[in-house]
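Components:
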Amino acid sequence: MKQIGDKIVKLGLMAIAVSAIGSLLLIALFIFKEGVPFMARLGLDDFLASSDWRPEKGHYGIFPMIVASLWVTFGAMLIGAPLGIAGAVFLSEFVPNSVMRVVKPTIELLVGIPSVVYGFIGVIVLAPWIRLHLGGAGLSMLTASVILGIMILPTVMSISIDAFTSVPNSYRDGALALGATRWQATHMVVLKAARSGIVAGTILGMGRAVGETMAVIMVSGNAVKTPHSALDSVRTLTANIALEMGYATGMHREALFATGVVLFIVIMILNAIAITAMKKRFAKK
Amino acid sequence: MRISPKFTQAAAVAILGGATFVTLAILVFIVVFVLVKGLPVVNLDFLLKNPEEMGRAGGIFPCIVGTIVLTLVAIALALPLGVGTAIYLSEYSVENRFTRIIRFGTDCLAGIPSIIFGLFGFIFFVTTLKMGWGILPGALSLAIMVLPTIIRTSEEAMKAVPQSYREVSCSLGATRWATVLKVVLPNALPGIMTGVMLSVGRSIEETAVVIFTAGQVLQLPTSMFDSVRTMAVHFYILVREGISNENAYGTAAVLIISVLLVNTLSYWMMNRYIARRTK
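Structure:
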């Protein structure tokens, strides 16, 4: 009797265990079902490579949004990755453990600052500053990059710190015993050992930057045109979906789902890279 | 010419230390800025009164209620699924292709941006299942979003329960399920709670998912299918439509304080749990 009961429990748990992968498949299915037929009808060329986004006229080119998303993310990484990794190096290699015990939790708390608050700071503080000192309208690609760069800092930093902490102390001691300075030990030994963890943290940060929506809408200006300078107003893929979803119908709505498909694929590729990098790290241990 | 190692060491400390200082200063500035501007607006009236003129005046009471209800329902939906999956992964299976697929799916789900959850929730729950904008479709979408967090933290917590506990339980004649219920789960509870609190934090701060699935109607909900406007959405609308910066600051302050409180609580629980484990 007992055995049968346990079997039933096991089957029940198995059914529950597919909930995550089931949700993932369901999400992919519904986004693709709405978006892919549209892409096929319009032709990939007119969708991905055209700069003409006028839904009311039946033109659905998302090229400017792709370019904008790439630039904004690239800019965010330019700020977030070096600062985040430098901070992680400093806190885990150059600072006494007692300081780290206070700073690490603080950083992890800051991961929870709502993204809309970052956007708000962009609107209230950064955009006027840029308008005054660099010109342009203020709400621009540069503003979006800086705000996203700051937003991903806690993520990049906290995962990189974990990567550094997991490097055995014997590595450091060995280098120091050979007469290396702290910095030499860090960049010759520790950085190499922690590389895959840093890569994972950076890519997860990149995923957050590509996928962020509300904060970007608030600071990027949202004009549909291919940007020529960092001070131009731009609209990212995510912003395009969120801005027009409220009133879109028919073809227009399908076009937004097709934008979602592009985003989904980009994120999945980034995820796959991050997961492989993480795996490598655990395999090495 | 070779640069002296002493010099590179000093330069590295200066540059890295500077970068760390700048980073922390920016992040702390954001929190302090919002609190300094927002806290003067926050008082009992602000917390307990209804908004007037679209939020230009009055309080944010319906948004606080909306946020709490939506979060609680989302957690209630995600918790059984997440903990069940974790029990299966940690107690009822060995590493094989099936568990690897589950883990991969969980990791991928964790990386999906919230706007995709919002799109999915809109087309599936709101449109296809004809629920309309409301608490239930919003909570279902949020539940899928936080599921990976709950699965991962719960599994970690169960794996940290010493094997000997299970062996003792089984040698006393307990079934595996009884062992899970009476030995593993109670010992893993603080770890599971940490995952829950992290999920609560994410649900409170979420905007993109909520706006497309729970809507944005300013009202006190009376049923699961009533649309609500959470604090994060309210804040977004106040800023985007330039309704009231003052009330936006106030809402942001309440929002930040709630998220920081929830996160501090989860951090504290995690630490107490780790301390108990390593004793």
